[in-house]
Every structure is written in C-alpha cells, then in structure tokens.
Automatic annotation (TrEMBL):
The name this protein goes by in its record: Olfactory receptor
Record-annotated membrane-spanning stretches: 25-48, 98-120, 141-168, 193-216, 237-260, 272-292
InterPro entries: GPCR_Rhodpsn, GPCR_Rhodpsn_7TM, Olfact_rcpt, Olfactory_GPCR
Family designation: Belongs to the G-protein coupled receptor 1 family.
Gene from which this protein is expressed: LOC101973193
Source domain of life: Eukaryota
Organism the protein comes from: Ictidomys tridecemlineatus (Thirteen-lined ground squirrel)
GO molecular function: G protein-coupled receptor activity; olfactory receptor activity
Membrane topology designation: Multi-pass membrane protein
Domain G-protein coupled receptors family 1 profile intervals: 41-290
UniProt keyword annotations, A-Z: Cell membrane, G-protein coupled receptor, Membrane, Olfaction, Receptor, Sensory transduction, Transducer, Transmembrane, Transmembrane helix
Role: Odorant receptor.
Source species taxonomy: Eukaryota, Metazoa, Chordata, Craniata, Vertebrata
C-alpha cells in the first residue's frame, strides 16, 4: 500500500523511527518536549540579551544571533516530524521538501559561520584586549552578522538548486524523519548528482577553512590564558571559552559523521541518533550551556524575573 501511494504522488515518504503506532506517539512527545525546551531556552537568551543593558557587548550580540538561529534551525525539522508522527502520515510534498532542504542547509551553514565569528570575537578579546573595542565595534559586528546570514542563504540556494535539478529514479522513500540531503542523493540516477558533489566539495573546503580558523583561534586563546598568573582570571576565561568550544566540536563532528558516512537502504538506530545529535540536540543544549556557565547571564535572568515579580505586585496593589 505504501509503495503504491508514493508512486502515484509527487512527494516523498519519510520513514521515521518506527512503524509502531505507540512508538510514533512516544517519539512525537519526546520531540515535543525537546522542542519546547529549545524554544524556551533560546527565547530567554534573546530576551535578556536584548533588554539587559549589561549584556550589550559583541559576545552577547553574537550569542543572541546564535539563539535566533537555533530557534529557526530546530523549527525546520522537528514540528514536521511531530505532525507526521501524531497524524500517522509521513508523506511530504515536493514543495515542502524543497523548502526544508533550503532552510536546513542555509541555517546549518549559518551556524558554522556564526560559531566561527564567535571564536574570532573571543580570540580578539583575550589576545588583543587593548584593540578589542576598535576591532569589534558595533558597525563591524553588524556587518559580520549580515555576512553570516547572507552566506547561509547563498549556500542554501546552491544546495537546493543542485539537489532538485537531479532526476529521482528510485521510489521516493527517505529513511529519515526529514528531507535529508544524503538520503535524497541515494534516490538519484547514476551520474545526476555530480552537481551536488561539486557544491558539497566547495562548501566542505569553506567549512574546513572555518574549522582551521576556529582551531587557530583556540590555540592562541589557550596559550594566552595559560600565561595569566591569576587562577581566578584563568577560570573566568575558560568558563567563557570552553562552552563555545564544546558547541563547535559537537555540532561539526556529528554533522561531518552524518554527511560523510555512506548511506544504506536500511539505516540503523545509530544513524537516526547521529541525525538527532546535529539537528535537535545543539539548539536544545546551547541555551543551557551558555546560561548555566555564565554568571552575567544568570544575574541578568534573576534581575528580569525580579523585575517582573515586583511589577506584578505593584499592578496588584494599584488594582486593590
């Protein structure tokens, strides 16, 4: 029945985690919890970095952009997966798949780019503190963010135009919970995907340059930090840099593993877990990592909650 339905329709069939109805509902609920946690955490970071006057430095400006990016990134795949599981309908139209590939590849590249910019910001702040305000002035920060988002859009256009210019010869069944690029390439004709390989090779070279830049920044950061005589000063710097290094390493390693690993007709549970690690976990963990290890963020959140508490009391007293 599934094969007949998909061959007579123009879209794709997403084979998610299980065909069992109870497990589908369980996965939908788990995804919903992770999605709500990600939305709440990233929205809190965006709010406090916008309202708190003490969090207007470039580091928090880039952190706000990362949270906005994570909100968008997780919204590309997870709501569709939740809806498919709850409705027991894994079909996605051709247009939906195009949009999902475009936004997913655009935002994935934008994440790499913003993490690179954030590493350069930390490198400048720690290695060139006297020149930091000149190098990372608000105008340069705005241009950096514009370049990050524009580069993401360009990569999305390149990937999407290359992928959907190929002819899909096989039955359009995707062994994933979203329109994943490697799974789409598996459905193509013999030599139809050479354009995609060219785009992927180009983006891989640029991503490698970003990775080298991040590694270069942290080698210099740690060599500078180790020369700081104060243990408190070293601890403060490490508390700022180590969360960022963890986020970069986790996102890049899982993404590279997923995209370089050969696709199979029967993906294992490990394949699905890796896809979750680079699509769902980073946007969910980023707010926790950055807020729990950052005293300024925790203080700003406490102040925001106290202001709301007192404003609520004042409103109640005025009404009485």
């Amino acid at each position: 029945m599934i094969m007949t339905n998909i061959t007579t329709r123009n879209g794709f069939l997403l084979l998610g985690f299980s065909d069992d109805r109870e497990l589908q509902i369980l996965y939908a609920l788990l995804f919903l919890v992770l999605y709500l946690v990600a939305l709440t955490g990233n929205f809190i970071i965006i709010t406090i970095t916008t309202l708190d006057q003490h969090l207007q430095s470039p580091m928090y400006y880039f952190l706000k952009q990362l949270s906005l990016l994570d909100l968008s990134f997780i919204s590309v795949t997870v709501p569709q997966a939740i809806d498919n599981s709850l409705m027991d309908d894994n079909y996605v139209s051709y247009g939906q798949c195009i949009l999902q590939v475009f936004f997913f590849t655009s935002l994935a590249w934008t994440e790499v780019a913003i993490l690179t910019v954030m590493s350069y910001d930390r490198y400048t702040a720690i290695c060139f503190p006297l020149h930091y305000e000149v190098i990372m002035d608000p105008r340069n920060c705005r241009w950096a963010v514009i370049a990050v988002w524009v580069s993401g859009g360009i990569s999305g256009i390149l990937y999407t135009s290359a992928i959907f210019s190929i002819t899909f010869c096989r039955v359009k069944i995707i062994h994933q919970f979203f329109c994943d690029v490697p799974q789409l390439l598996k459905l193509s004709c013999s030599n139809d995907y050479l354009g995609v390989i060219g785009v992927a090779a180009f983006m891989s070279v640029v991503a490698l340059a970003c990775f080298v830049s991040i590694a270069f920044s942290y080698v210099h950061i740690f060599s500078t930090v180790l020369r700081i005589p104060s243990a408190e000063g070293r601890s403060k710097v490490f508390s700022t840099c180590l969360p960022h290094l963890f986020v970069v390493s986790f996102f890049l390693s899982t993404g590279i593993c997923a995209y370089l690993k050969p696709t199979t007709d029967s993906p294992s549970a490990f394949d699905f877990m890796v896809s979750i690690f680079y699509t769902v976990i980073p946007p969910t963990l980023n707010p926790i990592i950055y807020s729990l290890r950052n005293e300024a963020m925790k203080a700003a959140l406490r102040n925001l909650l106290l202001e709301k508490k007192f404003s609520g009391k004042n409103t109640l007293l005025s009404c009485c």
